[in-house]
Structure formats: structure tokens, C-alpha cells
Design goal:
Radius of gyration: 17 Å
Number of helices: 2
Order of helices and strands: HHEEEEEEEEE
Number of strands: 9
Strand content: over 45%
Structural class: mainly beta
Helix content: 10-25%
């Protein structure tokens, strides 16, 4: 599938919810988790899910095609840092149902410190995280470590956009190390 996960994921989640409603399967009787409140209207918070791990699809250089939209350019673990250059990973967390939203966090450890990015991931669909060098201060040579952590569904008051990141537990993790040079 070449469409972005954020466009196709809700369609799969809606289909899974409709199937659960018609058949009575795939729904938790005693719901102990909910999605972020922006997704409650989609009725996806009651869908049971399972995650069997993650797959690192690609790693290397990316090219920006439009603001905040990137395409994979070439595989690499040694990255030349230059203004407007970008690198990162494409990944997928495997499980069912396809398109189920789960909370996640991207952790970037670089010579300048640590950066945390809370997000939502569509189970089973290809996602990416790309770091773009926007300012000269970001052009820092050294070892850069990108990790993506997938969490059990958390309360909407805890995650991800209100308050601090307090997910229930990490259920899968992917990581990649890059050697960045200037």
C-alpha cells in the first residue's frame, strides 16, 4: 500500500469495528482501555488487538516532497548532515486488526541531547519517522539513535497530547543507529 497510514488506517479501523458489531467478535466485554478522545467518535476504543512485534522496513536518506511529507531516497547508516537534508526509518508494527490505533513514542538520542515525540501508530501499516536538518545548530556529528516504542492503549487523559506521557506498558520497540557526519 502506497497511501499514507493516516489516510488508510481509519478506513481499516472502521471496517474492523463494523465487522465486530455485526458478528459480535473482536470486541472486549470488559473494556479496560480507551483511545485518545479525538478517536472516540470513530468507535475504535473497544476493538481488541494483538501486536506480534515490529519490522524495520527501510533506513537511510529521505527527500521532502512537500512540507512534512517525505519519500525514501537511499539506504544508509552513515548520514551526511546538511541543511534541508533528512534521514530516518520506515517501520511497521505487526498485528491485528489492521489499522488499529495505538499510542507510541519516538525517542531520538543525539549528541545534542534527547528528543521525545508522542504519536499514534496504525497497527500493521507502514509508518515513518524522519529527522530533517532545519537549522545549522542541528548539524551535529556523532551517533544518532532513533527508537520507536509502541504502547498498550492508555487513557485519553494520559496520552499523548494532554499532560505527560504515561502509557500503560511498552509492547514493542524498534531502533536504529546512524553515524552522522558533517
Amino acid at each position: 500500500m502506497n497511501e499514507p497510514a493516516k489516510s488508510i488506517g481509519p478506513i481499516f479501523a472502521e471496517l474492523a469495528e463494523e465487522y465486530a458489531g455485526v458478528t459480535g467478535t473482536g470486541r472486549l466485554q470488559d473494556v479496560n482501555f480507551v483511545m485518545h478522545k479525538q478517536h472516540v467518535d470513530y468507535r475504535r476504543y473497544g476493538i481488541a488487538y494483538r501486536c506480534t512485534g515490529g519490522v524495520l522496513e527501510t533506513r537511510g536518506s529521505f527527500r521532502e516532497t512537500s512540507p512534512r511529507q517525505f519519500v525514501f531516497e537511499s539506504p544508509a547508516e552513515n548520514i551526511h548532515a546538511k541543511l534541508d537534508g533528512a534521514f530516518g526509518i520506515e517501520f511497521r508494527f505487526v498485528g491485528a486488526p489492521l489499522g488499529r490505533l495505538l499510542p507510541a513514542r519516538v525517542v531520538v538520542n543525539h549528541p545534542g541531547g534527547e528528543s521525545l515525540y508522542p504519536t499514534l501508530i496504525y497497527l500493521g501499516l507502514k509508518e515513518n519517522f524522519v529527522w530533517k536538518f532545519d537549522t545549522p545548530e542541528e548539524l551535529i556529528p556523532g551517533t544518532w539513535h532513533i527508537a520507536v516504542e509502541l504502547f498498550d492503549a492508555a487513557s485519553p487523559t494520559d496520552y499523548p497530547f494532554h499532560g505527560t506521557l504515561e502509557p500503560k506498558s511498552c509492547i514493542a520497540r524498534l531502533e536504529q543507529v546512524f553515524d552522522v557526519w558533517v
